[in-house]
Amino acid sequence: MRFRSSLSASESESSFPVSIDSAGERGGERAPARRAKAAGAQASLGATELYFRSLAGSQPLTREGEVAIGRRIEAGALACFEAWVRSPIALRELAFTAEDVEHGALSIRDLLCEADANDPEADACAARLAGLLDVARALAARKQDDEGVEIALAGLAAGLAELRLDPAFEERIERSLRAAAAAADKAERAPIEATLAAIARGRRAVAQAKSELVQANLRLAVAIAREHQRFGVPLLDLVQEGNLGLIRAADKFEYRRGHRFGTYAAWWIKQAIKRTILNQGKPVRMPVHLTAIRSQVVRARRDLVQERGREPTVEEVAERSGLSVEKVRVIGELALEPLSLDAPVGEEGDTRFGDLLANEEPTPADMLARRRLIEQTRELLDSLQPRERELLRRRFGLDGNEDETLEEIGQSFSLTRERIRQIEAKLLEKLRMRSRQRELGSYLEG
User: Fold this and answer.
1) What is the tens place of the pLDDT at every residue in 122-165?
2) Is there a contact between 233 and 281 (Cβ–Cβ < 8 Å)?
3) From start to end residue, where is composition biased (Low complexity) (predicted)?
């Protein structure tokens, strides 16, 4: 499906006559500079803004415009099936299909589009298709120039065009045509290639008409997507899913029923968006009974904010809602929405949330400094007496041990708590002096 794209800066400039002075400049500014400026301004816009700007000039279709497109879709589909039924090869394939259905090798519903096969009117569609296949089988056995065959072929093509056949079934028929063209000689190949060309023209006509129908209603998908922004799915994702629903609506729209396409497409767009929200909106869903309690808490909090002009405390919300303080606190924690690290942030949405988080993992430089600190600490402790070294290790929890209080160490060494504190202070001062001496020595040696 083709969508209209805006011209680039260079293309739009080359479409109009310009005057170039002797200095090779235009309007006081060089052409490359103008193009670079335009490209830079466009690059500064986010994808969302660019997409919305591209839709600014689109206009919805009138009822007459929708009817005209609907007729073009019908005409294109009819051209495809007229090429089918006028080809002996395709007609023979339809006859073989009728035999497969009759013998139970193939289900008639497998020949219908999946959505139509599950439609409430599927039985009626299947019965109509079965009747058309029987007609094709009867016509394949008759000569093309027999009286009444032309009228029957036209009726068969019109009947097939009214149904939505399974794409795999259509591809099978057309694949048999391509295989026959590849195996035929030059004289026999020409009519088969003409049939394939007619089918291709019909397909292009249908695709172009549906594309125009979709393009004229892209703003409708954006408007509906904006209404569902509060559910935690990025707007562009909602718009994309809405566009898929819009395409689905264009495939199924029947203008003869008298409905406006926008009214019909809105339902498909909403269904596509709601399905995406259910799948992506909340990774952890809250049970129904807690959802009701959460609504009660939210309502109480909102009323208190309006009355007092400030954020209420948990106790005030509990009193207003008639719930316990603990339950209000738990509901508040459950109501927190998980935030994806890939979620876009900023006005343009060009930055990911994860890019703004600090990396708490140590850098190689931090790891090297820590290793050096541990080595120096061990060297300084090794310079102390064994009992002094043991006291500091137990006091500060070195070598993976739990740090102990002055009272616990005093009991182990049979000393008072105050005496242990004095010894600790002296040992730390001794280590400080030796550390400074080492730093000064390394400086003098350097």
Assistant:
1) 788 889 999 999 999 988 887 666 667 888 999 999 999 988 88
2) yes
3) 1-22
Interatomic CA distance for residues 178 and 175, integer angstroms: 5
Token pair of 293 as six digits: 């309690």
352, 342 Cβ separation under 8 angstroms: yes
- What is the distance between the alpha carbons of residues 331 and 241, in angstroms, rounded to a whole number? 32
Q: Which fold has domain 217-280?
A: Rna Polymerase Sigma Factor; Chain: A (1.10.1740)
What the block records as the tokens of 46 is: 């986010």
Structure-token match 């395709």, residue found:
90
Q: Which two tokens mark 237? A: 């994702």
Single-letter amino acid, residue 89: I
**This prediction's pTM:** 0.56
Q: What is the pLDDT of residues 180-215, one digit of tens each?
A: 999 988 888 999 999 999 999 999 999 999 999 999
| Residue in 122, 199, 133 with CA at minimum distance from that of residue 164 | 122
- Cα separations (Å) of 39 from 9, 44, 444? 7, 9, 60
- Is the CATH number 1.10.10.10 carried by domain 365-445? yes
Is CATH 1.10.10.10 what the domain over 288-337 is classified as, yes or no?
yes
Instruction: Give the CA distances from residue 243 to residues 186, 220, 222, 238, 269, in Å, rounded to whole numbers and listed in that order.
Output: 45, 9, 8, 9, 7
Query: Between helices 288-308 and 325-334, what is the axis angle to 10°?
Result: 110
What are the beta bridge partners of residue 29? 26
Token output for 143? 């000569």
As a three-state string, the secondary structure of 91-119 is HHHHHHHHHHHHCCCCCHHHHECHHHHCC
Q: Residue 363: is it exposed, middle or buried by C-beta count within 10 angstroms (0-12/13-18/19+)?
A: exposed
Say if 288-337 and 365-445 have the same CATH topology. Answer: yes
State the pLDDT at residue 242. Answer: 94
**193 touches 109 (CB < 8 A):** no
Residue of 394, 392, 374 lying closest to 430 (CA atoms):
392
